[in-house]
TrEMBL record:
The keyword GTP-binding does not apply. It comes from the Bacteria. InterPro entries: Methyltransf_11, SAM-dependent_MTases_sf. GO terms for molecular function: methyltransferase activity. Keywords: Methyltransferase, Transferase. The keyword Signal does not apply. This is Methyltransferase domain-containing protein. It holds the Pfam family Methyltransf_11. It comes from Flectobacillus longus. Residues 69-124 form the Methyltransferase type domain. One of its GO terms (biological process) is methylation.
Length: 178
């Protein structure tokens, strides 16, 4: 998680959306490393993405680290084609190990361009296919190659800023709006 935290460059006062975040396990864990973050935890699954589950996740992390987490967390339920997140609000939008699962990737990218502030960053942490036709071990869906992912984002209003390699097959891509 430390490598992700460093790659995301989260700082106090950041307003962050995490799309495809379920109950916010990663996000609340990250907030335990930096106080003063506001997270909009978004998912299409209303059973995992709701205030009760987010509160449970926060309590779990507080037990793990032995102190209160100083952050604000909102659960937002979307649809496969709409995030239901407010426009021009976010310093950063995170997609952690979920982009390959999105049914309407281009539609969501267009919406992300609208919800990010003009100086905002889109950060995608994603397992990358090392060979053609490789699928995600957990969900069985096809993985992107690094080139496919970058080209898709480039065609949808985002320019690559940096890549942080966590493992040979796991990378953090930081994009800016064009």
């Amino acid at each position: 998680m430390k490598k992700s935290f460093d790659a995301y460059q989260l700082k106090a006062g950041d307003v962050i959306a995490s799309i495809g975040a379920a109950s916010g396990v990663w996000e609340i864990g990250l907030a335990g490393m930096q106080s003063g973050l506001t997270f909009y935890i978004q998912d299409i699954d209303e059973y995992s993405c709701n205030e009760e589950e987010v509160a449970y996740t926060k309590a779990y992390w507080e037990r793990q680290i032995g102190r209160k987490i100083n952050g604000t967390f909102y659960a937002v339920v979307g649809t496969p084609q709409k995030t239901n997140l407010p426009k021009d609000t976010f310093d950063k939008v995170l997609i952690i190990n979920a982009f390959h699962e999105f049914q309407y990737q281009e539609v969501i990218l267009l919406e992300i361009a609208q919800i990010l502030k003009s100086t905002g960053k889109l950060i995608i942490e994603e397992e990358i296919a090392l060979e053609q036709g490789q699928v995600h071990e957990g969900c069985g869906l096809p993985l992107f190659s690094e080139t496919q992912l970058i080209n898709l984002l480039d065609a949808n209003q985002f320019a690559l800023k940096t890549i942080v390699e966590k493992e040979r097959y796991l990378k953090v891509f930081v994009f800016e709006k064009k």
